[in-house]
From TrEMBL:
The active site is at 49 (proton acceptor), 60 (proton acceptor). Belongs to the TrpA family. This is Tryptophan synthase alpha chain. GO terms for molecular function: tryptophan synthase activity. The keyword Isomerase does not apply. Its EC number is 4.2.1.20. GO terms for cellular component: cytosol. It comes from Clostridium ragsdalei P11. The alpha subunit is responsible for the aldol cleavage of indoleglycerol phosphate to indole and glyceraldehyde 3-phosphate.
Amino acid sequence: MNRIDLKFSKLKERGEKALIPFITSGDPDLDTTVELVIAMEEAGADIIELGIPYSDPLADGPTIQASSNRSLKGGTKIVNIMDTVKRIREKTEVPLVYLVYYNSIFKYGMEKFIRECSECGVDGIIIPDLPIEERKDIAAIGKKYNVHLIPLVAPTSKERIEKIVKDAGGFVYCVSVNGVTGTRSSINTDIEEYMNIISSYTNVPKALGFGISSAEMAAKFKPYCEGIIVGSAVIKKIEAGKSKEDIIENVKKFIRELKLA
């Protein structure tokens, strides 16, 4: 069984929701990425998203764009990230998901990329700019290697939701607002109605992300979904750290607060 499915099954038994933090691989460096994954799991993270840095991340706001730029300037490449996941897998079985832009997979080689995901221990991939016509091929290769294709649904998707979630695996990434990623003080989407629409088309767990920046917001939205995704707010803790130890401690404390909520 895929680690993501196993995790959601165990959380359901315990009456818990999944906390899914996001970090950019290689920000500030790949050694710190390994330590951050371990620290976040210890603090209560259930599934961890690892962003593959990209020069033009259309779905990402300034915070994640800046972390991507820092990682790329440090020389991070996909092959190094695959090796980093192998190092992580020596220490933990926490479910891992790549957030990766389509062009990166296309250049690397679609089957090669997904096969290597499976070999190194990645359980799912999120592709924010995946063309609908390419979805079928990637989903089929993912099934072959037991790597879930996790679709993104937005409030504007409406009549396309059924088609988008058709090949969903692991969970559905439910974008809470229109626009790019980033911390927000409030979310104006009618989350209850939105999540009910998605639930009418799929039984796959739903995780809500984009704009959730605090324990209070996580607590507010958890009744409507099976998981909460937090990205930019975690990256800000990394940005603010003066040393590696500082970064790890800041992030760990924040994850603990979120999981408690």
